[in-house]
């Protein structure tokens, strides 16, 4: 499989799906991203990222059961695929290599 680019927000979505396990659908994914990062995430951005990730083969989805609370609408649950795990792992390794050996210099503003 050729390497497919993973954007920053897509990485956050994949990590949220991993953290949520079987309860991973759009609303808790959005909430986990906002809670863990302090970053606002619109539902539109979450849905767009989920769609891109599924098209790339990094996520798989399934429809849940019909519920009365949702007026008969089913939730779409997501799970990370082997390719998704490989992609998020590669991103982590790349970030760690970038941080490795970085000197804390005042000119970098990283004090």
Short recap of the structure:
The protein contains four helices and two strands. With 111 residues, it is α+β, with helices and mostly antiparallel strands. The chain has one domain (8-100): Winged helix-like DNA-binding domain superfamily/Winged helix DNA-binding domain (Arc Repressor Mutant, subunit A).
Shape: elongated
Provide the CATH top-level class.
Mainly Alpha
The number of strands is 2
CATH architecture: Orthogonal Bundle
Q: pLDDT average, as an integer?
A: 89
Distance between the terminal alpha carbons, to the nearest Å? 41 Å
Number of domains: 1
Secondary-structure content class: alpha+beta
The number of distinct helices, counting runs of at least 4 residues, comes to 4
In the CATH scheme, what's the topology name?
A: Arc Repressor Mutant, subunit A
CATH superfamily: Winged helix-like DNA-binding domain superfamily/Winged helix DNA-binding domain
Helix percentage range: 40-55%
Describe this entry's structure for a reader.
It is built from four helices and two strands, in the order αααββα. The mean pLDDT is 89. It has one domain: Winged helix-like DNA-binding domain superfamily/Winged helix DNA-binding domain (Arc Repressor Mutant, subunit A). It is elongated. It is of the alpha+beta class and 111 residues long. The chain starts with 7 loop residues before the first helix and ends in a 12-residue tail after the last helix. Strand 1 and strand 2 form a beta hairpin. A two-stranded antiparallel sheet has the order 1-2. The chain has helices at 8-20, 26-37, 43-55, 82-99, and strands spanning 59-66, 74-80. The longest helix has 18 residues, at 82-99.
